Amino acid sequence: MSASNPKKNSFFGGAAILTAGIIIVKLIGALYKIPLGNILSDRGFADFNTAYDIYSLLIIISTGGLPVALSKMVSEANAQGRVNQVNRVFHLAAVAFCVLGTLSFIIMAVFPKQLAGLMNNSRSYWSILALSPAVFFICPMSALRGYFQGHSLMTPTAISQILEAMCKLVIGLVLASLIMRAGQDESLAAAGAILGVSVGVLLAMLYMYWCYRGHQAHQRKSKDTPDGSREILSTLAKLAIPITIGSSIIAATNILDSAILMDRLQEALGMTEDAARTLKGVYNKTMTLYNLPSSFMVPLTSSVIPAVSAARTVRNYKQGALISETTLRTTALLALPAGVGLFVLGEPIIRLLYPSTEDVALAGWMLSVLGIASIAVCFMLVSNSIMQAHKLVTLPMVTTLIGCILKLIVGYVLIGNPDIGIRGGAISTVACFGIIALLDLVIIKLALPRSLSYVRVFAKPALAAAAMGASAWAICGLLSKVLVKLGPFQMKGEDGLAILDQAGQAILSWKGNALAVMAAIGVAAVVYFALILFTRAISREDLSLMPKGDKIAKVLHIQ
Question: Which percentage of the chain shows pLDDT scores above 90?
């Protein structure tokens, strides 16, 4: 980009920094939760996730819309050169953040037993208590992030996110491991793991405050008169409340879904709390992997809104529709292979990443089903951004609410069925996000010009993903059988009997499965990439939405 357009440079540079930061954070999160799932028992992992569901809802209520509203008001005042207005807005927002953070902290710190009881998991008490400081510290940190984003300074936010994630990874895993080795209860180990989150948020907040002090030291003086406190708070509320409500729907659904799951397993199926915790822990492990594909939608969701908005500003609505179609096709190119891969390799992936799971077959079945749901989630996220770019801001809230209500109903009915049980949680997730994605795509098709073609969006990526999935399934299945048969023959005694004990056989089986999965993924990647190029399913316009996309298109000779 030319230097003549500094605002555009600033925006895309900031978006790139945040995108890179978020991807790094998501990868660190995977490195945190996958080994944590093996350190903790399935019951401990259920306790961890129960506390995290409560934390996520309170965080969204406390900070869901305020950072966006704050950054918008700071950006507008900054563009007008109103330095005193910027400071007044930030200080009032920071007070509001701290009040909300204090209330959220009190809820978690004073009533952990009551919250654990409402979630039908009394052993999650310690994890809820250990996470309570984080819900306070994240509120002033969110105010600081909104302040810097309003100045188009994204680096402090990105670095603070990575710092928070690294502390969670190192401190959380070390504490959980030490507590388990000391022979303590798994619920305490889960609390130790989640305490790393609180420490990470505290350190990230201190880093952001240090950046703020440095920025304030170089801020120029101004004589502008800031607006009144009531006016500023009113504007903040009007901007923040709709965003908060929209963001809270899925988090609130996760809370209710978790409580319903534990209740139905215990009341409808007659399980003990420990048995229900075990099954919920198995389910939570599959959810960790199911969430990964959607993490890589960040570059698309951050790119489509400014691109479509720019086209609409000059009344080029056809161009906006073409950009939307390209975004959806790129989503299909990324989401379909990821979801199909989870579907066909569900059980082998669980055996590879979570070998300590008590019921690998059950976890594998649920991961396969959730692989389908992950595709729908990716399309939901991108579709929401497309609708927001086309100023259809309320419709995503409506479709999300419909899907979430469906999830709770389907989950309640199916989980209470003895023939389905915990599997109903995975099925309800597919129903929820499947209907949301379908409704979103229908709305986009009706609202945008007729140039939008779902045949162009889905046909070629779907065929390539299907062929890829078939090759991955065949390679993994064949190699697994061959390696399992060959393995014991390499470890025979003179009498022809295997000399491996049970632990040795388990290690040998894990290694054989690991080789089979890695080979299957490698072959599948080659098959998919070759078919995408052969069918010309990807264009230069598609790649232009990705970082370094033009250079990639040039190397691959894509027009």
Answer: 41
